[in-house]
Amino acid sequence: MEKNAALKKDPRLNTYFADEAERRSVTRTMFDEAAPGYDNAERITALGSGAWYRREVLQRCGLQPGMHVLDVAAGTGLVAVAAQELVGPTGRVVALDPSPGMLAELRKKLDVETLVAYAESIPLPDACVDFVSMGYALRHVGDMDQAFSEYLRVLKPGGSVCLMEISRPQNRLGQLALRAYIGGVVPLLARLMGRYADVGRLWAYYGDTIEAAIEPERILDALRRAGFVDVQCSLTFGIFREYTARRP
Ligand SMILES: C[S@@+](CC[C@H](N)C(=O)[O-])C[C@H]1O[C@@H](n2cnc3c(N)ncnc32)[C@H](O)[C@@H]1O
Q1: Site residues for ligand 1, CB cut-off 6 Å
Q2: Is 99 a domain residue?
Q3: What is the number of domains present in the chain?
Q4: pTM of the prediction?
Q5: How many CA atoms lie within 13 A of 92 on its CB side?
Q6: Could you report the per-residue pLDDT of 202-234, keeping only the tens digit for each?
Q7: Cα 189 to Cα 171: distance, rounded to the nearest angstrom
Q8: Are 77 and 106 within 8 A, CB to CB?
Q9: What's the CATH code of the domain at 161?
Q10: Which helix (H) or strand (E) element contains residue 143?
Q11: Is residue 97 part of a domain?
């Protein structure tokens, strides 16, 4: 089984939690507390590269009017909002996230069904959605195999999965630039946003999870192992990766 080993072994992340149970409780608290400032922080740091990019990726991955979408790790709804725009009034979006605080922010901007749950255990029946999306959360998932087999289960045959994730740049210069940005610029920006002090901690954790993130090839392998076909990965601006696959 492909557990998200990097989350457990990397010494940077061991300072946040000791095991899977503690990881769930620590990250849930972290996201609950950061929820009111998340969109602002995301906008300023651009680590997720904004609404236009999320929408463009969903469109490129084949999201169309009328589709039924499950947005996993929906957070404050940055992917879900773009999905709702694309599927239109005849489509449907369901937003899933373990953090009630993040989902409360989502509900302020979007009137959709929300589920407080984890990617590894989705409270939906088999073959009920056309499209599964997940933005910037793969590195928070403890058991990637379990999550991907859940995605396959809830997708209708022919349905697509679209995962957006930041990865470490391939060249040394890019790695140094990203480290400087995450280690220096982002904490400074987070501090400047004073009233959202907890966002600073979240962003420090965010940077550490990028550094410790699993390699793209292992994510592609896990998708194939789950039973997906047409498994692909594209790279935008050297760090943003979009993983796409289809249920046969
Ligand atoms: C960085 S936010 C991303 C939110 C949103 N998708 C976006 O694009 O901005 C990561 C989200 O993943 C959620 N999360 C953490 N562990 C998860 C898991 N095992 N399954 C599903 N969601 C999880 C967190 O609660 C948080 O809302």
Answers
A1: 27, 31, 42, 48, 72-75, 78-79, 97-99, 102, 118-120, 135-137, 140-141
A2: yes
A3: 1
A4: 0.88
A5: 7
A6: 666 766 666 666 788 999 999 999 999 999 999
A7: 26
A8: yes
A9: 3.40.50.150
A10: none
A11: yes
